[in-house]
Write a structure and sequence with these properties.
The complex is a heterodimer.
Chain A: E1 4-12, E2 18-27, E3 32-37, H1 43-48, E4 58-63, E5 66-67, H2 73-76, E6 80-83, H3 96-106, H4 111-124, H5 140-152, E7 158-162, H6 170-185, E8 189-193, H7 197-203, E9 207-211, E10 214-219, H8 221-224, H9 228-234, H10 240-248, H11 257-267
Parallel strand pairs in A: 3-8, 3-9, 6-7, 7-8
Antiparallel strand pairs in A: 1-2, 1-4, 4-5, 9-10
Chain B: E1 4-13, E2 21-28, E3 33-37, H1 44-52, H2 54-57, E4 61-69, E5 72-73, H3 79-82, E6 86-89, H4 93-96, H5 104-114, H6 119-132, H7 148-160, E7 166-170, H8 178-193, E8 197-201, H9 205-211, E9 214-219, E10 222-228, H10 229-233, H11 247-257, H12 269-280
Parallel strand pairs in B: 3-8, 3-9, 6-7, 7-8
Antiparallel strand pairs in B: 1-2, 1-4, 4-5, 9-10
The chains are: A alpha/beta, B alpha/beta.
The complex binds adenosine-5'-triphosphate, adenosine-5'-diphosphate and magnesium ion (2 copies).
Adenosine-5'-triphosphate sits between chains A (13, 15, 17, 19, 37, 39-45, 85) and B (145-150, 175, 177).
Chain lengths: 268, 282
């Protein structure tokens, strides 16, 4: 059985607005998946159902065998860690260190395990030098890493990152890339929402495309960025090389800088 | 004499170990689009705050040097005079929503109400800006019940509606999907066509390369480069200063190293495309 299973899931907000309609998919243990799609497509709403922050109003969500409707968000958050789109929704402590330490303490881990986890979390997010800082004196992009570290320190199996690439500079992106590799090596399952298509093509083999409350497609980015109709419908703009190749009218399967150079050299 | 001038400006936040802005001199022309680039922490937001006059007014710290607007020291302008002249879109969209009103339409209209603009004009201007920013369909929604990208568009709309002469915009597309990001740059282009001066902080280098006139590059609070975009963005050595260059620049460099003949200083995808078509037929 899959680790995460959405079966015909719909979600309506309390004000009556329907944000997700009849979505089905499954995610296996150890997978790394990017979710892309236009603003308001329903991405955040969908992933909030993975840790019980939201419960489906129709259909079922099963995470590691648990039907999320039968468990509390607190129970589910031991399995799935969610990093909010707005980091300020989940920062409550006066120092970065206290913020990261809070999760493992609440979970009742012993001192040694807690310190090991905190150290690891700070290290992979590049926060070691900021442990005594007040999170609110740090830039938003770094506060995002504080929330990521807090979730890593809880030693969850499933990581859901809501737009970690937003506002990151190239160091931030590189930190995310390295972190992704390290977590994957540990067998973690990682779901990342992002609008950064370069980040998608450089780091993911599986992409979920959402548009107007629906899941349109799950596929390899190479496939997705070749399909004009799908891009049109989901309002996606392909990454630089795919766009250049299209502009130039090149029909061959060219996807990277190296491949396009190869293409020209072979035509000479 | 520039429209906006910074003369040797330095600023150190209270208790900070080093200046966030150091000996910065810039001359900004009216009606042009300036993009500010730099790694996080390099001082982009600080520079925006200095240009807008929020530093030194609302931040504790030590400032030296002077900012001039139309030949007059910025500090001689009252906040009331400056507010309608210079709009500022904050970096964190989640903080810009005032929540003073309970739907998106009223949220966007709020600033105009404060300026005492007549009701029918408010109606007209808000409708136009909602059209422009693709927020019309959100008019009746509670501003706190929006997706991240929708909130960011509402935040931008609430400043655009004020129609200031100068727009200082700090990372307005961080939560936006690619299409909406392009829309924002298109709006900025249109603003520029009506004579507005734009100062924009943005990490999305391909769009900066396409739309901006001039680029200001910051590192550790210093301006390490400032000039016309083709001149600045084609300097490969900027990569050693934490700056991401347009892919056209990086790709063209790799192509040259493989013996292909590519003209220098091509910064946009379209420029590289035309060069490839010219030289290689495709
Ligand atoms: N608390 C809420 N109450 C009512 N409607 C909401 C709420 N939060 C979001 N919505 C609506 O639900 C839809 C989906 O929102 P969601 O946050 O899931 O989008 P998203 O795909 O994450 O978009 P973005 O890329 O902008 O973050 C949007 O139309 C939004 O306006
Ligand atoms: N309110 C503040 N108080 C103290 N230091 C600050 C404050 N805001 C920013 N800084 C510091 O000033 C420097 C420049 O920050 P900022 O202008 O926000 O950079 P950027 O916008 O390029 O990310 C950083 O070292 C940052 O930590
Ligand atoms: Mg979202
Ligand atoms: Mg900033």
């Amino acid at each position: 059985m899959a680790l995460i299973e959405f079966k015909d899931v719909s979600f309506q907000y309390p004000n009556g607005f329907s944000a997700v309609e009849h979505v089905s998919f499954s995610i296996e243990q150890g997978e790394s998946i990017a979710i892309v799609g236009q603003n308001g497509a329903g991405k955040t709403t969908t992933v909030k159902m993975m840790n019980g922050l939201l419960k489906p109003t129709e259909g079922t969500v099963v995470v590691d065998g648990m039907d999320t409707r039968s468990f509390t968000a607190a129970q589910l958050s031991r399995k799935t860690g969610y990093v909010f789109q707005n980091p300020d929704d989940q920062i409550f402590h006066n120092t970065v260190g206290d913020e990261i330490r809070f999760g493992p303490q609440v979970l009742g881990f012993d001192r040694e395990k807690t310190e090991t986890l905190v150290k690891f979390a700070a290290q992979v997010t590049g926060l070691e030098k900021d442990m005594d800082e007040n999170p609110y004196n740090l830039p938003l992009s770094i506060r995002k890493f504080v929330t990521i570290a807090s979730v890593i320190a809880m030693d969850v199996d499933i990581f859901v990152l809501d737009e970690p690439t937003a506002g990151q500079d190239q160091y931030g992106i590189r930190t995310l890339e390295t972190m992704l590799k390290i977590l994957r090596e540990k067998g973690k399952t990682i779901i990342t929402i992002t609008h950064d298509m370069e980040y998608v093509v450089n780091n993911f083999e599986k992409v979920m495309v959402m548009a107007h409350k629906n899941l349109l497609r799950v596929d390899h980015p190479r496939k997705i960025f070749m399909e004009d109709a799908l891009l049109e419908e989901s309002m996606l703009i392909p990454p630089y090389i795919s766009s250049l190749v299209k502009d130039l009218g090149i029909k061959e399967d060219v996807f990277t800088q190296e491949e396009i150079i190869e293409y020209y050299l072979s035509r000479k | 004499m520039g429209y906006i001038e910074l003369n040797n400006v330095s600023f150190t936040y209270l208790l900070a170990k080093r200046p966030a802005m150091e000996n910065v001199s810039l001359s900004i022309e009216k009606g042009k689009f300036y993009a500010i680039l730099g790694a996080n922490g390099s001082g982009k937001t600080t520079l925006c705050n200095i240009i807008r006059g929020f530093i030194p007014n609302f931040y504790e710290g030590e400032m030296t040097g002077e900012v001039m607007l139309e030949g007059k020291p910025l500090k001689d302008y009252s906040m009331e005079d400056l507010a309608p002249k210079m709009g500022y879109v904050f970096q964190n969209p989640f903080n810009q929503i005032t929540g003073a009103r309970d739907n998106v339409f009223e949220e966007i209209a709020y600033g105009l109400e404060n300026f005492g603009v007549p009701v029918d004009e408010i109606q007209r201007r808000v409708e136009r800006v909602m059209e422009m920013t693709n927020t019309a369909y959100l008019a009746e929604k509670n501003p706190f019940e929006l997706s991240g990208g929708q909130q960011q568009r509402v935040a931008l709309a609430s400043i655009l509606v004020l129609e200031p002469d100068i727009l200082v915009i700090d990372e307005p597309t961080s939560q936006l999907d690619p299409k909406e990001t392009e829309r924002v740059f298109d709006i900025i282009r249109k603003m520029k066509e009506t004579g507005k001066t734009i100062i924009l902080v943005e990490h999305k280098i391909e769009l900066v390369a396409e739309y901006a006139d001039h680029v200001i590059v910051l590192e550790n609070g210093k301006v390490i480069d400032f000039g016309e975009k083709h001149e600045v963005l084609s300097k490969l050595e900027l990569q050693d200063h934490g700056i991401v260059l347009p892919q056209s620049v990086v790709l063209a460099d790799k192509m040259r190293k493989q013996g292909m003949e590519i003209e220098p200083k091509l910064v946009t995808r379209d420029e590289l495309k035309q060069e490839l078509q010219r030289k290689y037929g495709r």
